[in-house]
Design brief:
Elements lengths: L12 H7 L14 E12 L2 E12 L3 E5 L6 H7 L10 E9 L2 E2 L7 H7 E4 L10 H11 L6 H14 L3 H4 L12 H13 L5 E5 L7 H14 L4 E5 L3 H7 L2 E6 L2 E7 H6 L4 H7 L5
Parallel strand pairs: 3-8, 3-9, 6-7, 7-8
Antiparallel strand pairs: 1-2, 1-4, 4-5, 9-10
The structure holds adenosine-5'-diphosphate and magnesium ion.
The site of magnesium ion has 3 residues, from helix 2.
């Protein structure tokens, strides 16, 4: 028997394309001046396929937000960018990730210096149990970035200034970093990341443990750092993504559904899954 549908019930091809998971990421994955270029990245935790064939460029002086429901793979993909997944048992990464034209999964890459070039800031601020000064001085010291005490002091001061923390801590550099407020500790961790002159800064929900005032300070800081660094930020706050990022990438069940200019993604998403997420239908 033939099923006859009225015209209004027939979905157009483009409606169907919007509803199902796309085979290919919608939007421009390629940028003109990429600092990071990921191609066909898959990540497995044992049998679990956590990242499914993601390709994405990230521009040199650009802030990109990763958004999507929890468990969709944002942190996993972020950790691919400085090989932090190497530290997780049973985790296997496939595909290619180039940073400044070099494959970071090349066995000849020195992972310690990679993680200085691609620094990471976590959801929960994690200062070392050391003084404020030593929190910042530690990285430059182990990477041999300062040839004298004066130079080291200069790096510490500059890093704290860039992180907008210098005025608040300059008179108590010898006190423990863990004694600072939550927002100050997060800016201390950002200063610590900056101190080793990274090219890329990865931030995994850096404000989710902070109050609105501390969040505003970190966002202001991201705004100032954008000219000098490539910044990737995972956030649950769509307002935050809209405020701080040039591009936004929407993840869903391990796939990169859509990427585009932040304004376009929020005002005119190409995929229905993106639309449902940003309008709060799920998340
Ligand atoms: N260390 C791990 N071991 C096993 N599975 C993991 C691990 N980390 C994440 N996963 C799984 O991978 C998927 C993606 O997780 P994650 O990257 O943390 O998502 P998100 O950051 O978007 O919330 C989830 O199904 C999660 O359960
Ligand atoms: Mg996460």
């Amino acid at each position: 028997m033939e099923i006859v549908m009225s015209n209004s019930m027939v979905e157009t091809a483009s409606q169907i394309e919007r509803r199902v998971m796309p085979d290919k990421t919608l939007g421009q994955i390629v940028v003109d001046n990429p600092r990071v270029s990921a191609r066909n990245v898959d990540v497995f935790y044992g049998d679990k396929h956590a990242i499914d064939d993601i390709s994405l460029d990230i521009g040199a002086s650009q802030v990109i937000s990763f958004i999507g429901p929890s468990g969709c793979g944002k942190s996993t993909f972020l950790r691919c960018l400085n090989r932090m997944n190497d530290t997780i048992d049973k985790c296997r990464v496939e595909g290619e990730i180039n940073i400044d034209g070099r494959n970071i999964y090349d066995p000849l890459i020195d992972v310690v210096s990679l993680r200085a070039r691609v620094g990471m800031v976590f959801q929960k601020a994690n200062p070392f149990p050391k003084s404020i000064f030593d929190n910042i001085a530690y990285g430059p010291t182990i990477h041999g970035l300062a040839s004298s005490k004066v130079e080291l002091e200069q790096i510490v001061e500059t890093s704290l200034q860039r992180a907008g923390l210098w005025e608040e801590v300059k008179d108590r550099l010898d006190q423990p970093g863990t004694g600072l407020s939550g927002g100050q500790q997060q800016r201390l961790c950002i200063a610590r990341t900056i101190a080793v002159s990274p090219e890329v800064i990865l931030m995994d929900e850096p404000c989710s443990a902070l109050d609105p005032i501390a969040t505003a300070k970190v966002e202001e800081l991201i705004h100032e750092l954008r000219e000098q660094y490539t910044i990737v930020i995972v956030t649950h706050s769509m307002q935050q993504a809209a405020r701080v990022s040039d591009r936004t990438a929407y993840f869903h069940l391990g796939k990169l559904v859509e990427v585009g200019d932040t304004k376009q993604v929020f005002t005119n998403p190409k995929h229905e899954l993106t639309q449902d997420y940003i309008t709060g239908r799920f998340g």
